[in-house]
Design a protein that fits this description.
The complex is a heterodimer.
Chain A (H helix, E strand, L loop, with lengths): L12 E10 L2 E11 L4 E5 L6 H8 L7 E6 L2 E2 L2 E3 L4 E2 L2 H9 L1 E4 L11 H11 L5 H14 L15 H13 L5 E5 L7 H16 L4 E4 L3 H7 L2 E6 L2 E6 L1 H4 L7 H14 L2
Parallel strand pairs in A: 3-10, 3-11, 8-9, 9-10
Antiparallel strand pairs in A: 1-2, 1-4, 4-5, 6-7, 11-12
Chain B lengths: L1 H42 L2 H15 L3 H11 L9 H26 L3 H9 L4 H31 L11 H12 L2 H30 L5
Classes of the chains: A alpha/beta, B mainly alpha.
Amino acid sequence: MAPSRPDANPPLLRIRGLVKSFGQTHVLRGVDLDVERGKVVAVIGPSGGGKTTLLRCVNFLESYDAGSIAIEGQEVGYRDAAKRQRRSEHDLARMRAGTGMVFQLFNLFPHLTAAENIMLGLTKVRRLGRKEARAKALHWLGRVGLIDKSDRLPSELSGGQQQRVGIARAVAMEPKILLLDEITSALDPELVGEVLDVVLSLASEGMTMLVVTHEIGFARDASHRIVFMADGVVAAEGPPAKIFAPDQQSERLRTFLARFSAAHRL
Amino acid sequence: MLQQIVYAAPFLLTGLLTTLAVSVITVVLSLIIGVVLGVALVYGPAPLRWVVRGFSDIIRGIPILVLLFFVYYGLPLTGLNLQPLAAAVLGLTVFKVAQVVENVRGAIGSIPTGQMDAAKSIGLPFPERLVFVIAPQAMRRFLPPWLNGVTDAVKGSALISLLGVGDLMFAIQKVVGRTYEPLALYCFGAALYFLINYSLSLGSRALERRFSYISV
């Protein structure tokens, strides 16, 4: 855990004591997590450990029961974290526009072309004109290597291509932080690389990212810090070198990594 | 037989126009009200959802004829005394609204929740999410059952003759009462209803093609 320090240089994303339950299931039991500007933080851990829920809370796709999530010092879902006063719909939309999210199942809008998927937020949220929005959409489609697919519907694209459009849609909004939710889990193995390459190039340009992933190798190579989540808490945290050093590992993390590498040697 | 039909045609024409007018008014009103209530049923706060759910369940559980009689004969006891035509339109509209509510609920419910998540995540406020993301996708699921319901409305409107509204059915019966030639006239009347509904079906197929953007 990063030592708490005075707010002279607060992290871009600061999560403190985050608690979330679905009925009797306690998914998050007090999560503390910081993401500094320009850093890539990877969240790994067993299924059901609360990784995806954590990410969805940051975008307020899920409300949370206690604790606080602040982006640049602004509380995400509530006007007053202590009083649990939910932000207005308008305020929530404004906060969400500042955080980009890429989904496991892409969630592209099936009735819009690749370019239109990216343009929707630019025209309706960022209030750009159609021409400007299209130019920007094409720029980002170029960046993810899909300039020739700009007028295709999502159903005409492969999974890897769809996910690259998904990334372009999120980044084109120029978010302060990008949230990636197991973005390669639904892809055929041979399509994983093309998507991770895009993420790597964004990381190299200093995009701040919180990445939930099952690609342990990717987490090790691409992230500044790895967070190991289990049973709704941060069970271990540190730079990749520390997380993967066997003498530093907790029993729980060792078991997880061992099981993981066993599964992937098949 | 042709002779009888030629004799009856002028009488039936006004009836036919009444049937068409009542059907159009009912369909338009129920579409507007039903879409609003349907969206309330899916996205509204809990108390509002309960009210709409209760309304829809109760109305759909009542035969349309009972509903029409209730409006025409029942409501006057509460002080609301409606003319036959107004009572007919009100009864049919209430009945149709309940159907449209369910059409809307089904159509929106068929859209994966990830669509709303994605629309939220790019910062679209609720009305924009509904208009630009949910509605275009819900449209193709909404149209087939709704268009089916439109033909139901035209057919169901024959019942308003029982309130004394001079619709097509009423006109047929009046002529039959004079000529005692039920076979020819009911055949002719059936053909008229069929023509209206068949052209609606053809139109609806064209509309569905227009909105099926995914070639599955």
